[in-house]
Amino acid sequence: MHVSKDLVIRPIGRVESTLTTREDAPRQGDEGAPDAWLVFTENVREALKDLTVGDDVILITWFDRADRDVLAVHPRNDLARPMTGVFSTRSPDRPNPLALHRVTILAINDLRLQVSNLEALDGTPLVDVKPVLGDER
Question: Quick one: average pLDDT of 104-125?
Fold first, then answer.
């Protein structure tokens, strides 16, 4: 099997949030995460043109403060739960810390989108935005 070592992910923006530390952030967006702003780079302006207020989207971020050496965790940091491989959990600590967030667009201001319930920390790199198709809850 050939695995490319030249994979490059280019950030398309960053998160602006009141959450600044991992201790501040809820585990999931629907557990009390604040609304936040997504600030996109100029070079992706055209990609944003058909997004509208009220759209549900999947935001993909790069958890840049994650521990990439973690392979197993106690789910939700509950020591009563058995160690579980990170690919069976939503742990932010994992070999490639991509994170998925289902959010609703609340406001659009040029290259800035306000979204609901985002548990990502301030400064988190944005990787991609995808539409929600059908019922993905």
Answer: 96
Closest CA to 101 of 61, 41, 51, 55: 61
Q: What residue ranges define each of the domains in the chain, with the CATH number in brackets?
A: 13-131 (2.40.30.70)
The pTM is what?
Answer: 0.86
SS (H, E, C) the chain: CCCCCCCCCCCCEEEECCCCCCCCCCCCCCCCCCCEEEEECHHHHHHHCCCCCCCEEEEEEECCCCCCCCCEECHHHCCCCCCEEHHHCCCCCCCCCEEEEEEEEEEEECCEEEECCCCCCCCCEEEEEEECCCCCC
Query: pLDDT, tens digit, for every residue of 18-76?
Result: 888 767 765 655 556 789 999 999 999 999 999 999 999 999 999 999 999 999 999 87
Q: What's the CA gap between 24 and 9, in Å, rounded?
A: 27
Short-list 124, 115, 109, CA closest to 24: 124
